[in-house]
Design goal:
Helices cover 16% and strands 29% of the residues. It has 553 residues and is of the alpha+beta class. One of its GO terms (biological process) is actin filament organization.
Length: 553
């Protein structure tokens, strides 16, 4: 049975790294063995942790190229369990920052993980080493909600699409879904069996994607339904490496990237509602392991090149590899199906509105506002509709032109030999009918295809050109070929716009008024009639030759 190929626009996503001469280099990152990627990126800046688990850290413009000096300014932060919020100038750091904008004092031990609320303004969720969760209003430094109940270290926290719930993973191997407003547990289940850290993120439709380890320390991932966390919808083992897998999810495309500190490979998948739900796409591998890694948002990618994801990978050599993931498309136009509206920087709720119990979907904005607003332009020439008048004029002119032609001109255009006489009944039995040439738009007056008309509509072949019926067939055919009439001196072709071109250059320009148009048409018809007469002469000569050949047998 033939296997059906899965249809998906992201099935052939491929990675192209930026050349090293266009990247940053000579960046050092912290040596602490902490389960973190030590990097974060937005469309303006990229940050790397230099020392410790959370600072000091570098903040560098994302488009900077070349070597980073050792005395480059940094943010001198997080030397104590306190949580600090810093504001980076739009043009970047010109000096080292020592004073934070806001200090959040509430945790007794260092903060293990944190997440910004996706729709409400200035809401931050943090998890401390004392197994306590705090929801902060960063605008005034106030802790709005304190959530206890986790019996052991919290490995990860992540919000759902509108921020009404969040999911946590814990050292007790359990996965919990909590209500953000109240802190109560909505769903709970057993996660991966291994002792090493596991992580979980929400998929846009509400399902949970987790990474972890088996009892044999094999790395694996699973997709789970929120109301049945203990029984995965699908689960797959990957390898036996020691690095903790971090899921990096793109909610706009459904692409999931699995990365780990110390790995040389980046696996990526597409998650949808078709079995097996998590579809493997490819693995990007390099010779250098990653020390830090971050993903930029949709507002920072190149939509004109069909780029859908961009990762920044710091290698052990201190080089920041820029990894661009593209969807192959032949068209150079903006691909609307690849770029649905993405999250806007404007919040959908204030912190006070959220604490009143309100939820809201995130505000969206176009990925490429200029391309989304642009409409295709049609270059239509504003001219008179000449074609609407042509059929009537051509037909009338063609029917009267030959009758009005001077007698001397008609006689001069005829062959010099005497035309063969025809019975009068033959001409009367086949009345003239207009023959319309669909390609040229010309009406020619002539007899039907099954009979011969009078001399006024078709010229007879000269007697001396007729083959001798007593000659062999081959000789008669050669004689016919030798006596074919010469080709017309001027070749005339008509374009759909009725612009007539001639090898002699007499009628090659475009007519500008109706008189010139009629004059060009008259010239066309004159040349066409000459070709028609020669064609009829050839047809009659060939017909007579065939009759003579028949008599010879």
């Amino acid at each position: 049975m033939a296997q059906i190929v899965r249809q998906s626009k992201f099935r052939h996503v491929y990675c192209t790294p930026v050349k090293h001469e266009n990247c940053m280099s000579d960046i050092k990152v912290t040596e602490i063995t902490w389960d973190s990627l030590f990097c974060d990126v937005n469309p303006k800046f990229i940050a790397f942790i230099n020392k410790g688990a959370g600072g000091p850290f570098l903040v560098i413009p994302v488009n900077k190229i070349g070597r980073i000096d050792k005395d480059y300014p940094f943010v001198d932060a997080h030397r104590a369990p306190t949580l600090e919020v810093w504001v980076i100038p739009d043009k970047g750091l010109s000096r080292t920052l020592h004073e934070p904008a806001v200090e959040l004092n509430g945790h007794q031990k260092r903060v293990n993980t944190m997440a910004w609320h996706p729709t409400a303004n200035n809401l931050l969720l943090t998890a401390g080493g004392e197994n306590l969760l705090l929801l902060w209003n960063v605008g005034n430094g106030e802790a709005l909600l304190e959530i206890a109940g986790h019996p052991d270290q919290i490995f990860s926290v992540a919000f759902n699409y509108d921020g009404s719930q969040f999911v946590t993973t814990c050292k007790d191997k359990k996965i919990r879904i909590l209500d953000t407003h109240t802190g109560s547990v909505v769903h709970e289940g057993v996660g991966h069996e291994g002792l090493k850290p596991q992580r979980a993120v929400f998929i846009r439709d509400g399902r949970i994607f987790t990474t972890g380890f088996t009892k044999r320390s094999e790395r694996l991932y699973a997709l789970r339904a929120p109301d049945n966390l203990s029984s995965p919808i699908i689960e797959e083992e990957l390898d036996t490496s020691n690095g903790v897998l971090f899921p990096m999810y793109d909610e706009d495309t459904g692409l999931m990237f699995l990365v780990a500190k110390g790995d040389c490979a980046i696996r990526y998948y597409e998650i949808n509602n078709e079995y097996p739900f998590v579809h493997y796409i490819n693995t990007y591998t390099t010779s250098e392991p990653q020390r830090a890694l971050g993903s930029i948002g949709k507002r920072g990618i190149s939509s004109t090149e069909n780029e859908v994801v961009r990762l920044y990978k710091l290698t052990t050599k201190g080089i920041v590899d820029i990894l661009q993931f593209f969807v192959p498309r032949k068209s150079e136009l903006f691909q609307h199906d690849l770029y649905p509206d993405t999250r806007s920087t404007a919040p959908a709720l204030t912190a006070e509105e959220f604490m009143e119990g309100k939820n809201a979907a995130p505000k969206l904005q176009p990925v490429n506002p200029a391309a989304a607003q642009a409409k295709p332009k049609l270059n239509v020439a504003k001219k008179a509709n000449i074609l609407a008048q042509l059929p009537t004029q051509i037909e009338t002119t063609q029917q009267t032109s030959y009758a009005e032609k001077p007698q001397q001109e008609r006689q001069a255009s005829r062959p010099t030999s005497q035309a063969t006489s025809r019975p009068a009944s033959s001409a009367q039995s086949s009345p003239r009918k207009p023959v319309i040439d669909d390609d040229m738009g010309i009406v020619a007056m002539g007899g039907s295809s099954g009979s011969r008309s009078g001399a006024s509509s078709r010229q007879e072949a000269p007697k001396e050109n007729k083959p001798d019926p007593m000659k062999p067939k081959e000789q008669g055919r050669h004689a016919d070929v030798d006596e074919l009439p010469a080709a017309a001196p001027n070749r005339v072709s008509a374009s759909p716009r009725m612009s007539v071109s001639s090898s002699s250059g007499e009628i090659g320009r475009m007519p500008t008024n109706m008189d010139e148009l009629l004059e060009d048409l008259q010239k066309m018809k004159t040349v066409i009639r000459q070709h028609e007469r020669r064609i009829r002469m050839l047809e009659e000569t060939l017909a007579d030759a065939n009759m003579s050949s028949a008599y010879s047998f």
